[in-house]
C-alpha cells in the first residue's frame, strides 16, 4: 500500500491490519514515553487547504510520535491564498523531498489527483476531500466500535450502526458505510430525504426516516454534523424542526440499549444534531474517538512509510526499554 485515498481501495485484510497496528500504537500512546523512532529522518507535510482542528493536530501528533519531521502547511498564510494551484504547491513539496503528504481539500478527488500527478513521488493520505471520503475518520470510528463492543479484536460482524443526519454532505458517512459494511456491520442511514445523496440505494446500507424506530436496535449511534457551510439551499424548514426529528436528545437517549455508544466525528453543533447533555453523557465516546484517531493515524503512517506490519516487537522493545 503506497497511498490511503479512499476506503474503497482497502481490502478487508488491509483494513483489519490497520486496526491491529493501531491497537499496538495505542500502547505507545498510553506508555510513559509516547514515541517510537520508526520514521526518524522522514518528512511529512500536513497540507490542510480546508479548515480542521482534530484531524490536523491528530496527524501532527501521530507523525511526531513516530519521530518524523512535520511541516504544517495551511491555505491561510501560504501562496495558496494568492491563487497558487495545487500543481505548483505539489511541485514545491516534491522539491523539498517530502516522503508523505496528508491532504485536506474542498474538492472531491483532490487526494487522488495529487497521488497520481507526475509531481508527487511520496505517499498521499486523504484527510478529507470535499464530500467524497475521509478514510482515517472511518478507521478511527471502526477502531472505537471494535474496542468498546467487540473486545478489541477481529471484525465488526453483526454490529448494528446507525448514521444519522446530513449524509448528503458527509465524507465521514460515505467512508464509514464502506468500511463498516466491509467489516461485517449492518449500517442504517437515518436522515430526511433531502439530506440523502442521489444513488444512496446502491450503498451497502439501509435507509430509514424514522429515528425513534431505529434507536433501540443500534449498538453504535453516530451523529453527523449539519454542514451548513456546504448548504446552498434549504434542506429542512427550521433548525428546531430538524432537532425535533433527527436530533439526539434526552428522550431518545432513553431508547438506546444499555451498552450502546454515542459517536460524533466533530465539530459538533450542540443543540442542533445533539444536545450538550447527550454529547457529555456516560454513553458518549466522542472524546475517546479523538484519542483513538492518533493511534489509527500512527498505524497508517507506519504501514505506508515503514512498510512493515511487524509493529508488535518494535512496540514491545520501546515500552519495555
Ligand atoms: N470533521 C469531519 C470532516 O472533516 C466532520 C465534519 O466536519 O462534520 O468531514
TrEMBL record:
InterPro entries: Asp/Orn_carbamoyltranf_P-bd (IPR006132), Asp/Orn_carbamoylTrfase (IPR006130), Asp/Orn_carbamoylTrfase_sf (IPR036901), Asp_carbamoyltransf (IPR002082), Asp_carbamoyltransf_Asp/Orn-bd (IPR006131)
Single GO MF annotation: amino acid binding
Biological process per Gene Ontology, one example term: amino acid metabolic process
EC number per UniProt: 2.1.3.2
One of the record's GO cellular component terms: cytosol
Top-level EC class: transferase
Keyword Zinc: no
Pfam families named among the record's database cross-references: OTCace (PF00185), OTCace_N (PF02729)
Reaction equation(s) it catalyzes: carbamoyl phosphate + L-aspartate = N-carbamoyl-L-aspartate + phosphate + H(+)
Start and end residues of each Aspartate/ornithine carbamoyltransferase carbamoyl-P binding domain: 2-146
Pathways per UniProt: Pyrimidine metabolism; UMP biosynthesis via de novo pathway; (S)-dihydroorotate from bicarbonate: step 2/3
Record keywords: Pyrimidine biosynthesis, Transferase
Domain Aspartate/ornithine carbamoyltransferase Asp/Orn-binding: 158-304
Gene3D superfamilies listed in its UniProt record: Aspartate/ornithine carbamoyltransferase (3.40.50.1370)
Function of the molecule: Catalyzes the condensation of carbamoyl phosphate and aspartate to form carbamoyl aspartate and inorganic phosphate, the committed step in the de novo pyrimidine nucleotide biosynthesis pathway.
HAMAP family in alphabetical order: Asp_carb_tr
Family of this protein: Belongs to the aspartate/ornithine carbamoyltransferase superfamily. ATCase family.
Protein name: aspartate carbamoyltransferase
Record organism: freshwater metagenome
Phylogenetic classification of the source organism: unclassified sequences, metagenomes, ecological metagenomes
